[in-house]
Amino acid sequence: MDHSRYLSKIKGYFFEESTITLGTGHTQRTQRVKNYCIAEQVDDEKVRLTFLGNEGKPTGIVIELPIDEFLRRYTLDPEYRVKTKEEAEHDRHIALAEKHRARGEHYSAEFEYTKALKIDPDSIRANFGIGTLYMEMGDTEKAKDVFRKLSEIEAIFDEENKHIFNEFGIELRKANMVEEALANYKKAITISPDDEHLYFNVARLHYDKREWETALAWLQKALDLNPEFADAKRFKSLILKEMEAGADPGTGREGAGEAKEDDGEPNVPSTPGQPGRKAPTPQGKA
After folding, report:
1. φ/ψ of residue 55, rounded to 5
2. Are the C-beta atoms of 109 and 132 separated by less than 8 Å?
């Protein structure tokens, strides 16, 4: 490929986004992180990358990549700036918290998240981190307090936090904060109206409340955006079968009493592409 059109043009701060896994078992979750570097084109074939640490300083790791691979993996960040001392310290505590958490060291993780919150009480990452940590620890009331605070922080709905606000809705649902979860998803939809997973998750909440007609309406919106959305198709089929079985979709009542999520073991995979007999799992884009 002719790279002459890129010559002397590639220079600046770039990042590669990757996914890390935190926790284990049923508490396992993923998080998107950005790894920054200074990139400078060497010639018409290669780009030199100098990787940066949390403080924005070079780590000493320098590599060269073919231009095609670099352009495929890295994104320019024209607004990148070196973090202040306080911001770097905040990020250091977050990184330590996540390391402790990955090892199952919950109290050490809580300590580091708390340190980060002392630096920035409105930190999205620290609040979301400690809230989900409390869920892992089984301390739902503490988690609810954190989630209530987090829902009042407008920055969670900024585009840069898009990867968090869908996960946040899922955590609200786990904490049985249904109305807060609905409000979160609906606000998220105003920011990211083309994300079919958000509509799916609203449907999931209405399914929990046995509001099947409403759930079907939200599923249809997801399918309008993505007609090949397999989980949404299966979920829609599940609801229609339950309605045909004699339940009253207006009240969510069946002859034997109010249906619960596991009653009847609806045959919808718990995760995409895997067999299972559980209710649909909330969706999120990686």
Report:
1. -90, 5
2. no
Confidence at residue 23, expressed as pLDDT on a 0 to 100 scale: 61
pLDDT tens digits for range 35-47: 999 999 998 899 9
Measured in degrees and rounded to the nearest 5, phi and psi for residue 132 equal -70, -30
Examine the pLDDT at 286 and tell me if it is beyond 50. no
Q: How far is CA 68 from CA 3, 8, 46, 174, in A?
A: 9, 15, 9, 43
For the ranges 31-40, 95-104, 152-161, 233-242, the lowest mean pLDDT is seen at 152-161
Q: How many CA atoms lie within 13 A of 249 on its CB side?
A: 16
Classify residue 83 by its DSSP letter: P
CA 101 to CA 117: how far, in whole Å?
17
For 121-175, give the DSSP string.
TT-HHHHHHHHHHHHHHT-HHHHHHHHHHHHT-GGGGSGGGHHHHHHHHHHHHHT
How far is the C-alpha of 172 from the C-alpha of 26, rounded, in Å?
16
Q: How confident is the model at residue 62 (pLDDT cuts 50, 70, 90)?
A: very high
Sorted by where each begins, the domain ranges of the chain are: 4-76, 84-170, 194-286
pTM: 0.59
d(CA 223, CA 230) in angstroms, rounded, equals: 9
Second CATH level (architecture) for the domain 84-170: Alpha Horseshoe (1.25)
Confidence of residue 55 (pLDDT cuts 50, 70, 90): confident
**Sign of the Cα pseudo-torsion (144, 253, 213, 207, in order):** positive
For 223: left if phi > 0, alpha if psi spans -120 to 50, otherwise beta; the answer is alpha
> Can you tell me whether residue 62 is helix, strand or coil?
strand
Calpha distance 129→33 (Å, rounded): 14
